[in-house]
Amino acid sequence: MTSRTPKSRPIKPRSNGKARDAPFDPAVFLATAALGRDISTHSKKAVIFAQGAEADAVFYIKKGKVKVAVVAKDGKEAVVALLGPDEFVGEGCLIGQPKRLATASAMTECETMRVDKSEIQRLLQDEPSFSRMFVTHILARNARVEEDLVDQLFNSTEKRLARLLLLLANFGKAGQTEPILAKISQETLAEMIGTTRSRVSHFMNKFRKMGFIDYNGHLEVHNSLVGVLLADQPRTVSAPK
Q1: Contact predicate 122/167, CB 8 Å
Q2: Are 112 and 48 in contact (CB under 8 A)?
Q3: Interior CA angle at 123 toward 102 and 105, to 5°?
Q4: Does residue 143 register a pLDDT over 50?
C-alpha cells in the first residue's frame, strides 16, 4: 500500500509583516535532494542495493517497480516483495541490521531517493508529520506480510495467483486495475506464491480464457478476477475457548 503525504499549506505572515517558517512537508522533502539525501535513476535490472552490503540508508521509490529478493548459498532466489511508487525499502537498517538481508533491483526504469540512516532517524524524532507517514507505511507493510502468510497457509494456488495479480495491478486503490507495465516472468510469480512455473502457466492460461486477464504487450488484469477470490467462503482461525 502507498502512504499519502500531506499537501503544503500556504505560509501565513506574522503580525509584524514577516513570514513564518514554512511547516515541514514530507512531500517536499522527498522531492528534493539535499545534504543526507540523493536522488538517483536506475535502468531496468540495475541493483539499488545488494544482499550483504552495508545497511546505511533507506530508499524512497519515486517512480518504477522494485523487486526485493533473497539469494541462498546454492544460488536459488526467493522474491519477497514487489514495491512501487511512494513506498520505502531498506528500512531494516533502522532496527540495527548491519548488512542488507536482501537485494533490491529495478524491474523497470526507476527513480529513488536515498536517505541516510542518520537523517531518517532525525526526521522520525523531530518531524511528527514525517513520523506519522513513515509509521503508516511500516504498519501497512506488516499487514501485507500477515496477509501473505495467511494466503500461503489457507488459499489454493489459483487464489494465491489471483490475489498477487490484483495486488500488482493496484486493485482497489483507484477504483479500477492498472496495466502491469513491468514484465514479470512466470518464474517470479511462482516464487512469490510458492509453486511451480508450470502451475502458474496453467492458471494464467485459464484466467485468460475466462476473460480475467489479457496480454497486449503488457499484462492487463480485469476487476472480474476478484471473483476467483470470492468463489467460496474464506477459512478463518477460531479463537481458543
Answers
A1: no
A2: yes
A3: 20
A4: yes
Dihedrals phi, psi of 195, to nearest 5 degrees = -145, -170
Q: Cα 146 to the chain's mean position, in Å? A: 14
> What is the bridge-based pairing of β-strands 77-83 and 47-49?
unpaired
> Is residue 132 classed exposed, middle or buried when 0-12, 13-18 and 19+ CB atoms within 10 A define those classes?
middle
Q: Long-range contacts of range 167-174, CB-CB < 8 Å, 24 or more positions apart?
A: 168/82, 168/221, 169/220, 169/221, 170/84, 171/221, 171/223, 171/225, 171/226, 173/1, 173/2
Q: Hunting for cell 524524532 — which residue is that?
A: 125
pLDDT score for 50: 97
- One-letter amino acid of 12: K
The least confident of 56-60, 208-212, 226-230 is: 226-230
* Phi-psi map region of 96: left, alpha, beta (phi>0 left; psi -120 to 50 alpha): left
Backbone angles phi, psi at 49, to 5 degrees: -150, 150
pLDDT in tens, 106-125: 999 999 999 999 999 999 99
The answer to pTM > 0.70 is yes
Residue 65 grid cell: 517497480
Whether the pLDDT of residue 224 is over 70: the answer is yes
| 60-to-40, 150, 174, 185 alpha-carbon distances in Å | 10, 28, 21, 25
Secondary structure tally for the chain: helices H, strands E: 7, 10
Task: Look at residue 174 and tell me whether its pLDDT is greater than 70.
Answer: no
Tell me the chain's radius of gyration from C-alpha atoms.
20
Distance in angstroms (rounded) separating the CA atoms of residues 3 and 135: 10
